[in-house]
Specification:
By secondary structure, the protein is an alpha/beta fold. The chain has 2 domains: 3-65, 2-Layer Sandwich (GMP Synthetase, Chain A, domain 3), CATH 3.30.300.130; 86-331, P-loop containing nucleotide triphosphate hydrolases (Rossmann fold). It has helices at residues 3-15, 42-53, 101-114, 131-135, 177-189, 209-217, 231-246, 277-285, 297-304, 309-312, 317-331; strands at 20-27, 30-36, 60-65, 86-93, 119-123, 150-151, 153-155, 158-162, 191-192, 196-202, 222-227, 251-256, 261-262, 269-270, 289-292. It has an 8-stranded mixed sheet with strand order 7-8-5-10-4-11-12-15, sandwiched between helices. α1 (3-15) packs antiparallel against α2 (42-53).
């Protein structure tokens, strides 16, 4: 721990008797302090920010609280999160991890942008944020010109934000659902998004507390479910569809990712994980089948390099697959 970080910790302890600093980042004359199990007091926040900013080497300070929210009063609707400037929100979700949900979310957001939509991509996968890597803004500092709101990252023609920019890449987040929800609320509502036609949210995999919180607190206009063709993934995809339907969010459709593999040498088509399982599931559940995404090494390598295939190889068959799905989503 650096001397500057130690000074910041002592200042935090000055204001709070019991404190759990979930994350502390000091970079480019900016300090970002994430506090866990603490309820915000605006006067305390203002004084603490002022004292931290007075330290040598610090010019800007952001303090993030992840305390649990009070339960809503019985009989009243829960207060909705307000994301300024965003006209429509689409959730990209999956019933389980490992099906390529985040890669799909990134490429669909870029495809929607290429269709003329002012697009934003929000990384809500709080325990495994990968959007900064896929969009190429990993390790870039968060900027706040007014000291109150964050500025969204602008990359490849879209705006984006992720919890991954505020925490150490290798640090695990040991947060319960309510605390994680509080952090997501701050990131969503305290970012200057500007004028956005469609925000794509990369949801955490599964159907747990965070997913339900996002579904209930945000005005989500539709959900896209991503699955591979194999039966074990489709079982969980069905759970995802049912979760969104129970909270009244329309299902825009199901995407079959890793649908097939074509050998680059001989052109042979191999259905490694099975085929058409997602299409059959969609038909059985009465929801739209949006299309197939092939299993292709370029999709993976371009995501790892921060140059998604829709952006870097827009004329490829793989990019075209995302574009066709985005056209269906854009039409509603």
């Amino acid at each position: 721990m650096s001397n500057l970080e130690e000074q910041i910790r002592k200042l935090v302890e000055k204001y709070f008797n019991q404190v759990n600093i979930a994350a502390l980042i000091v970079k480019d004359e900016r300090a970002i302090v994430t506090l866990q199990n603490i309820t915000e007091n605006k006067d305390v926040t203002a004084n603490l920010e002022k004292e931290i900013a007075a330290l040598n080497g610090i010019k800007k300070v952001n303090i993030i609280y992840t305390s649990e929210r009070s339960a809503p009063t019985l009989g009243k609707e829960p207060e909705m999160w307000k994301v300024s400037g965003v006209k429509k929100i689409i959730a990209v979700a999956s019933g389980k991890g490992g099906v390529g949900k985040s890669t799909t979310a990134v490429n669909l957001a870029l495809a929607l942008s290429k269709l003329g939509k002012k697009t934003a991509l929000f990384d809500a996968d709080i325990y495994g944020p990968s959007i900064p890597t896929m969009l190429g803004y990993e390790n870039q500092p968060v900027v706040s010109y007014d000291g109150k709101t964050f500025n969204a990252f602008e990359v490849h023609g879209i705006k984006s934000m992720s919890i991954g920019t505020l925490i150490d890449r290798d640090a695990p987040l040991v947060w319960r659902g309510a605390k994680a929800g509080g952090a997501l609320e701050q990131l969503l509502t305290q970012v200057e998004w500007g004028d956005i036609d469609i925000m794509v949210i990369d949801m955490p995999p599964g159907t747990g507390d965070i997913q339900i919180t996002l579904a209930q607190k945000l005005k989500i206009d539709g959900a896209v479910i991503v699955s591979t063709p194999q039966d074990i993934a489709l079982i969980d995809a069905v759970k995802g569809v049912n979760m969104f339907q129970k909270v009244g969010i329309p299902i825009l459709g199901i995407v079959e990712n890793m649908s097939y593999y074509i050998c680059p040498n001989c052109g042979h088509k191999e259905e490694i994980f099975g085929h058409a399982g997602a299409k059959e599931t969609a038909e059985r559940m009465g929801v739209r089948f949006l299309g197939e995404i092939p299993l292709h090494i370029d999709i993976r390598t371009h995501a790892d390099e921060g140059k998604p295939i829709v952006e870097d190889k827009p004329d490829s068959p793989q990019a075209n697959a995302y574009m066709e799905i985005a056209k269906k989503i854009a039409k509603g």
